[in-house]
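Teaching assistant here, posting this on the class forum so everyone can see the example we discussed in section. The complex has two components, and the goal was to see what a joint structure prediction looks like when all of them are supplied at once.
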Amino acid sequence: MSIRSQLLKGILDGCVLAVIEKEPVYGYELSQKLFQIGLADVSEGTIYPILLRLQKNRLIRGEMQPSESGPNRKYYFLTEEGKKALQLITEEWTQLSKPVNELLIGGGSQL
Amino acid sequence: MNVKALVEENNRKRELLTPENEAYYSDLLIYIRLKFRLSELHTEEILMELLDHLLEGQQIGKTGKDIFGDDLKGYADEIIEQLPKSKKRELFPFISGIVANIVGWLLIIRGFLFLVLSPFTAVNSTVYPVTVIVIAFVIATFVIVTIIYILKLIEGTLFKEKQSKWKEIMKAGLIGAIGMALILLTVKFLPKIGPSFEFSWWASLLTGAVILASIYVRKQMNKD
């Protein structure tokens, strides 16, 4: 596993929740959006175990609906618990990313 | 959408895959469907999502490997780990239904055979319940062991580049033959033990018919 995908693993749940929060998506759409954002290293299939886990933890729920192109697709929606979890992840990430950025990129001048 | 509709849609859509992607997806499908402890509905739903994804990817020239990675078995295990288990409440009626079906048909066949044969030969319609239970136990054990063994054999043929199936077929045939021999030997040499009673052809037919009819009624009641 590359360093990038190892780093990504911990935060991917948050990324998936954030995409779904903007608008309900189905699996293929979700992978396209992650790709467009620039997370090209996520192998497309990776999202399905994540989607299953998020459903099991009731952070998202799936619903069969006709898609734009016609056939039925399972669309994912954020639940109330999902919104709270996303908020928490965002806060944690902000707290974590600032010192890590300073340390790795800013050269850690205050050390 | 129910399980049956999903399975039918899956069969239809699978024909749209290229031969290479079809072989790839089928391995995934068989491997996941063989896990009977998983909730059937959730299993079929995720299989449909994966198939839809593969079909969309195929249109822009992607293969199954591009989408689901090189380690397909590892990927399938990840999916299986996240799928909810089926409830015992669903499993028990399923197994008891199969057993009742077999017993019902056996009784009807027995009754019918005795009816047809009795004018030509002396038919012994005495039944020794203890002996019958022992034989039924031996048969049930054989059936369960064989099913588990064959499922393991099928699992072993998945996720391989080149597949030679004749070895597996030979193994399955061999265990079938050994099991049948064991059952026939048990039936032949098991002494008649315990109490006994007369179980005539018409009683046999009647009991069998009642069992099958009650299975039918229960099925109809569960339909809606």
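For the discussion questions: Chain A is about 60% helix and 15% strand. The interface with chain B takes residues 26-28, 31, 43-46, 48-49, 52-53, 56, 62, 64, 71-74 of chain A (CB under 8 Å). Think about how each of these relates to the inputs above.
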